[in-house]
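Key result, reporting period 2: structure in, sequence out.
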């Protein structure tokens, strides 16, 4: 994915990232603790790469205390800032925004989740263009409960209130909700197995795609459990996985993002017919 080299772009993004050993703990039941840190890093890498390819984005600051993650993200072009407050997500975002404005007092700043592996630069551009006309604005997540992006125009404080039902808190704080269709890649954060499956359906970046291909045989999840990557225990059809995990049947470059489309080939779980799921993102 090409890096945006237009340094006059208006937006500076702040991306927070926990130490990888602690990140994405809710994915552990579905992918296991061994693969979870690698997936968390892949999510962040694909998020940062897509953000830096967006014409509206000048730079990305990642706030993290994880040295290995910081090094990997720095190679993509991100600026790494230590989480010196050490007081949680919102304190880290405030610290990142202040770090940006210490160098550029008139910067437009947006906080962006680190777990948007399907992020498309063009969709991020739409969101930021919408946000640009308001002092503060936010985009709700795919579940309609949380927030994936919060923006602050020059002169406005970011005032983040991420975590849990943050959509309601950001709305109550006076931020304008960004009401756009067709920006699913900016809404689809990944906390659970179902979230990951939804992101894979949208088409994820190349690092997440590679990590996800290692998920075959991680864990057999019964139909009753319902929320895992493989929510069945049947024998898959030929070419599939015995636990019904997603299989990537084709890939192509779509806006710089590896569009890996999944079809479930297990014998017992829908959707499994071509008509059950749209064939285009």
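The corresponding designed sequence is given below.
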């Amino acid at each position: 994915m090409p890096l945006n080299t237009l340094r006059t772009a208006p937006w500076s993004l702040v991306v927070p990232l926990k130490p990888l050993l602690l990140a994405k703990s809710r994915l552990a039941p579905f992918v296991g603790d061994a693969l979870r840190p690698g997936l968390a890093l892949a999510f962040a890498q694909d998020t940062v790469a897509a953000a830096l390819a967006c014409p509206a984005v000048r730079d990305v600051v990642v706030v993290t205390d994880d040295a290995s993650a910081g090094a990997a993200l720095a190679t993509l072009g991100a600026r790494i800032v230590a989480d010196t407050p050490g007081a949680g997500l919102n304190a880290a975002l405030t610290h990142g925004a202040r770090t940006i404005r210490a160098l550029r007092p008139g910067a437009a700043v947006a906080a962006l989740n680190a777990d948007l592996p399907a992020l498309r630069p063009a969709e991020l551009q739409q969101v930021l263009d919408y946000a640009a006309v308001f002092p503060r604005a936010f985009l709700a997540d795919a579940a309609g409960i949380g927030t994936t992006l919060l923006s602050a125009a020059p002169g406005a404080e970011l005032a983040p209130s991420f975590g849990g039902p943050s959509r309601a808190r950001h709305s109550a704080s006076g931020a304008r909700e960004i009401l756009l269709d067709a920006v699913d890649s900016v809404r689809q954060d990944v906390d659970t197995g179902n979230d990951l499956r939804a992101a894979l359906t949208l088409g994820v970046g190349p690092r997440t795609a590679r990590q996800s291909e290692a998920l075959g045989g991680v864990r057999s999840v019964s139909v009753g459990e319902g929320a895992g990557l493989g929510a069945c225990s049947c024998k898959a059809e030929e070419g599939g996985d015995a636990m019904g995990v997603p299989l990537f049947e084709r890939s192509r470059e779509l806006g710089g993002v590896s569009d890996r489309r999944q079809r479930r080939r297990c014998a017992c779980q829908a959707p499994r017919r071509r008509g059950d799921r749209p064939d285009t993102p």
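The longest strand covers residues 247-254. The two ends are 19 Å apart (CA to CA). This case is discussed further under Risks and Mitigation.
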